[in-house]
Amino acid sequence: MKVLIIGGTGLISTPITQMLIDRGDEVTLFNRGQRTARMAHFSGHVRELRGDRRAFGTFEAQVREAGMFDCVIDMIGFHPDEVESAVRAFRGRCGQYIFCSTVDVYARPSFHHPYREGGPLHALSDYGREKIACERILMEAHDDRAFPVTLLRPAHTYDDTGIIHHSLGRSTALLDRIRRGRPVIVHGDGQSLWVAAHAIDVAGGFVGAIGNTRAYGRGYHLPGEEWLTWDGYHRVIADVLGVPLPELVHIPTDLLARLAPGRSGVCEVNFQYPNIFDVSAAREDLGYRYTVPVARGFGRIVAHLEATGGITDSDAEPYYDQIIDAWRDHTQAM
Hints:
The protein is of the alpha/beta class. It has helices at 13-22, 36-42, 56-65, 80-90, 126-141, 173-179, 199-209, 230-241, 253-259, 261-271, 280-286, 294-308, 318-332; strands at residues 2-6, 26-31, 47-50, 71-74, 97-100, 149-154, 157-158, 184-187, 193-194, 197-198, 218-222, 228-229, 248-251. It has a seven-stranded parallel β-sheet, sandwiched between helices. Strands 7-10 form a two-stranded parallel ribbon.
């Protein structure tokens, strides 16, 4: 098949590209060529189109000149004007248009779990609201013959060199704290649920959607399938590091967001709510399979960070203990 990937060298699109090459598809990548190492890896195996998709007139002319495609996979559509441009460029010129959306389109809190594809869309974040607008434009443009659209909604996705999220952001100093037995902050009571999926599994869901007529006009979830509490999430990290779980300091989410607004804001709009999703449709229609358990995936991340000196010394982040001290002073005064 002739497949165009808008992006092609990102977290999820890199394994998608590799899978398509491995199965013998004719792959074209459209991007700005900034990830030179990954583009070099694919050199000779893909056709390269360099450009900026936000230069809409030029982008649309470039992809029209590139010819017809059996499938277009848009991995970097974040704003409504970008997908409006894509509709102009590809309507009647591709066999299928697959859009990478996000589970962050859903309303939070929700009264029903797990989330299902038909659930209400009412995102709390600007990112999620923009994706909702993109989805709506695409579904209005959807036509089984002239412009078949498929929406795919990953959740937290990582690879072997990825990031382990936590209540105060993405700093790898969390790993040093756990290894050294230092107290660790967890938002709320630690019992909200979270999922994570390795990019290789999520990429498999994308590949399973290509040319799949059952996926036309539909949306699917591509998240992890282990429903971990945040307390359990930290226990997995401790197990990966081979140390006991340290003290978990639970701080109400709204208070934590005020204590560390630049680091914990995501807890208010996302982490404090159950993030669990029904994947039965993706399993049935796309052949989606969750094959990399969180413990194995996080073990790969830790191994990479250790090999590259990527774990930050927790002494370099004094704010962390200052937040714990402020919380303890507050609770002792009650």
